[in-house]
Amino acid sequence: MTLPPAVAACRRGVRRALAGLEPGDRVVVACSGGADSLALLAAAVHEARDLAVHVIGATVDHGLQDGSAERAEQVVAAMASLGADETLSARVRVEGGGQGPEAAARQARYAVLEEVAERTGARRVLLAHTLDDQAETVLLGLTRGSGGRSIAGMRPAYDVFVRPLLDVRRSGTEAACRAEGIAWWDDPQNDDPRFTRNRVRREVLPVLERELGPGVAETLARTAAQLRPDMEALDRMAEEQHARLRTDEGLPLSRLRDLDEAVASRVLRLAAVAAGARPSELFHVHVRALVDLAAGEVTGQVQLPGHVTAVREAGHLRFRRTAVES
User: Fold this and answer.
1) What is the pTM of this model?
2) Would you kindly state where each structural domain of the chain is located, as residue ranges?
């Protein structure tokens, strides 16, 4: 019998994600109960079988909706029915810390998935982001003026995390679930217009597809794929320069001036994060202010999110904790 194309696409992505694993290795699949993550889990169970890889299905309860604990139990049951070797549910406490609810929930979720991987000895954590998610990320980056790093979209892999479905449309994961008889849950929060991403998904992208023609999502995702190698190359150069330049006195201004601005700005961002600035809140305006401060185009100091202050002193750019008034 011919394998449905949507099922084949999901399995192909997972096959690439599991390449290099050895028999007995463990992999965590993050599962929310939606079509994307259930299609991912089903594909992982199928592909892992031939490799003798142990699949752990993990769901994270953010506690943000009524009945979330019951929903987590249902997801655990669904993961078990799909053949996961092991299942678990973790409840997290979502604290804003100056972030929006989406960002805070994402940070809490990734932290617990990292902990699950560490405790279970899993070599990889599979995430169910699709091509549509990638297109939304690129479009949001464009509208926010977030620069090349944001427009390059989500990385296919970093640390232990892997995104096998970035080439698969959301409609494809739903088709895969239908083909395999898998019932999924539609999170009502995904329709909540208070969240910017939901408005992009439900209103903005459909308008672009209607007015500009089909294929906008694919084009946005392809833009990210084309731009990402350039961004990663610049990031590697910046990491090397940051390692060479940083001293106990700070970053020497004379050597910073010798760098191309594309590299220098990244070095400054790395230094700020190393000093305690919150990377998720460190925007272009902050990095631009650091570039101007290092170049001497502005005087004084630059205050950064995370209670970090940058100053020019004795030929160096230095970072210190921001004094808090009592």
Assistant:
1) 0.84
2) 5-212, 246-321
Q: Is 267:242 a contact under the CB 8 Å cutoff?
A: yes
Residue 291 has pLDDT above 90, yes or no: yes
25 near 123, Cβ under 8 Å? yes
- Name the token pair of 190: 């995904």
Beta-carbon contacts of residue 265 (< 8 Å; ≥ 6 apart): 287, 288, 290, 291
DSSP H or E stretch at residue 317 = strand 316-321
**The architecture CATH gives domain 246-321:** 2-Layer Sandwich (3.30)
> Residue type at 193?
P
**Beta strand extents in 46-191 (DSSP E only):** 54-61, 86-91, 124-126, 157-158, 161-162
pLDDT in tens, 245-272: 999 999 999 999 999 999 999 999 999 9
Radius of gyration of the chain (CA): 22
Residues 232 and 230: their CA atoms lie apart, in Å, by 5
CATH superfamily ID and name for 5-212: HUPs (3.40.50.620)
Cβ-count burial of 37 within 10 angstroms (0-12 exposed, 13-18 middle, 19+ buried)? buried
